[in-house]
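Table 4 source record.
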Amino acid sequence: MASRSQILGVLTKARLLKIAWEFDVTGLSALRKADIVSTLARKRSILMEEVLDLLKRDELKAICQELGLDDSGKEKAPLIERITKASGCRKPKKQKEPSFLSKSKDKRSAEETKDTHQTPFFSKAQHLEEIEPGDTDKDGGDFGISDFENEDDGHYVEMTPDLVLRNTTTPAIQVFIDHLPDTEPQDWQPTVRKFTKEWVESKDFEKEGTIWFWGSNAVYQQTGVNEIAWAEFAVPFGFGSGFFDFLLRRLKRLWGSAVKISSYVVVNISEGWSVLCHVKDGKVWQQIDPITWIEFTS
């Protein structure tokens, strides 16, 4: 009998991340393909027949070939039936069209309008020990870039980049949201992306780097002020020396005492750290969902 892992293992990493997003399983984009397969296979709340319903005909045929089944036919239904029979899954009661695109669009709107105090979607992720630039997916995952399947969103792309994360203590840039000048927007993240883009272009930076962020209450200290306030932390990895000081200077010049250097922190996805932006191929990318990104151009 075919196992869930055997079926899921036929799919690309990009497709697995789409499936995970469809079933509200988040925080997997930094993992290797084998770990994503293992995670999804263990979740019994995800019915395999529902997963098969979401796949394209070519993907179903590939699964049939892997399982040694007849892959003939132009319709999905016979292919799904052969796979479900071979795997012991229940036969789907009805067919439904994939909802990846509409769901991605809905989640994208929610992401753009969310309160900055909201916990990032990475908060439910599994613990990740370390990610280094140059890591490759040895299990056949797709680490390239392809056009996002929506003609109205030409700037959106699908990619699973090598996020740069080191399991070491490091200082962070601390932004006290409630103490930003009234004339400045409360969403400080586009400003960080703007300065990052400026630095990348001025240095002709062609490597990969990731800025992580996290929010929590912290002690805000200033002359005559000592209070608990909401702060968000930014930690860059992969940019080399000079970038941290550059970003700190630019933010302090803009927002003054609302920007400070925090004590040393450890960036840990399982504790809610998320991606503020990622630099790849000399461009600054903003993450929309696990595999959908948009180039930051402002």
